[in-house]
Amino acid sequence: MGKFKIVGGNKLHGSIVPQGAKNEAMQIICACLLTEEKVRITNLPNIVDINNLIDLMKDMGVDVERTTPNEVSLQAKDIDFSYFETEDFSNKATRLRGSVMILGPMLARFGKGFLPKPGGDKIGRRRLDTHIIGLQKLGATFENANNYQKVTASNGLKGTYMLLDEASVTGTANIIMAAVMAQGETTIFNAACEPYIVQLCRMLTSMGAKINGIGSNLLKIEGVEKLSGTSHRLLADMIEVGSFIGMAAMTGSELTIKDAGIKDLGIIPDVFRRLGIKMEFRGDDIYIPEQEHYEVETFIDGSILTVADAPWPGFTPDLISIVLVVATQAKGTVLIHQKMFESRLFFVDKLIDMGAQIILCDPHRATVVGLDRTQQLHAVKMVSPDIRAGVALLIAALSAKGESTIENIEQIDRGYQNIDERLRALGADIKRID
């Protein structure tokens, strides 16, 4: 396993461009299965999870043309259905949580699909109920096989009304991709409305789908018989943008985030501003000035600031880890409430080892008492438990005194493109050791 060696305490300078959105890319790649024509995707993040999904598509029989590391054309003209019953498919798909979104397009176009056991970050139970119930309502039947579920729609998918039990992003995406070629009208209430879902719907409409209510939690979809090819450009990754805002503040650095996709960031900048972090919008760039101190806002009644995750347009759970680590050097106290996942706060023991003042109240809540830079974190040896916690630990190491080691960096590579090279270009002292 690879590791990072990081000498902290250096200020960063310059500008950085966020990669294309990982979570959007997963949906868009799977949507290519809806047509036999070519689909071109640009601003693609060159990261492990995305490359693994593209390799899986290739194994399924999809023609893949990788023109640059950040651009790919996919054409699902012929699919090898025998591959889905192999151990290789089960192993590869299980390592990728996004592989569950293969199911909706396969059912829509071919009337059958396969659902392996999902993989991804180990951050507590991440149920698939929304996917399964939604597809069942459209007419899909699930049958247990060896290491997967065999799913069929022998009479074709039929549009219906459904109220989703939760506003699951991947669940909503899967159901939308199934519904665009179902017979009749499908109404989806309590749909996720993240920018990634908006992007998926825009791509599908450019392919010929009929979707009303895009951007809201009430979607009406009129099924069509066939979809065509298209070209699609991914948004900037909002999680990288938030990570870089936090990194600049934590290291006391002056940084410009180029082409940040500000209009699609929702309340992310406001949450960091409430931590006392200053920023300026310059066109579509975010400029973060060097700050010696940043002070947490309190509520009007004097109670401490609470930062909690919620479905969009609430604060994304993928940035809870970043906010938590940034709060350790703020002036003031913050209650971090991770509502949507049950094991995402357990990385705080390493921050405590580094000298942070954190009380882990329970699996979902942590109180962070900011040190206001009166006590610099000190270097320790760490292991990255998942993508987002791994980057939070990386940010802590960049601000710490001494040389830190982060192991299991394959987790970080799953979500952040060449992060060590990009940080070195800003002045960070970080080395990759294989």
Question: Helices, strands, pairings?
Answer:
Blueprint: E1 3-7, E2 13-16, H1 22-31, E3 39-42, H2 48-60, E4 63-68, E5 71-75, H3 87-94, H4 103-110, E6 112-116, H5 129-137, E7 141-144, E8 148-152, E9 161-163, H6 169-179, E10 185-189, H7 195-206, E11 210-212, E12 218-222, E13 230-233, H8 238-250, E14 254-257, H9 268-274, E15 280-282, E16 285-288, E17 305-308, H10 320-327, E18 333-337, H11 348-353, E19 357-362, E20 365-369, E21 381-383, H12 387-399, E22 403-407, H13 410-413, H14 419-424, E23 429-433
Parallel strand pairs: 2-14, 3-13, 9-10, 17-18, 21-22
Antiparallel strand pairs: 1-22, 1-23, 3-5, 4-5, 6-8, 7-8, 10-12, 11-12, 14-16, 15-16, 18-20, 19-20
Helix pairs in contact: 1-2, 1-7, 4-6, 5-6, 6-7, 8-10, 8-12, 10-12
Summarize the structure.
Helices cover 29% and strands 24% of the residues. The protein has helices at residues 22-31, 48-60, 87-94, 103-110, 129-137, 169-179, 195-206, 238-250, 268-274, 320-327, 348-353, 387-399, 410-413, 419-424; strands at 3-7, 13-16, 39-42, 63-68, 71-75, 112-116, 141-144, 148-152, 161-163, 185-189, 210-212, 218-222, 230-233, 254-257, 280-282, 285-288, 305-308, 333-337, 357-362, 365-369, 381-383, 403-407, 429-433.
Describe this structure in words.
It contains 14 helices and 23 strands. It has 434 residues and is α+β, with helices and mostly antiparallel strands. Helix 10 (320-327) links the parallel strand 17 and strand 18. The model is unreliable at 119-125 (pLDDT under 50).
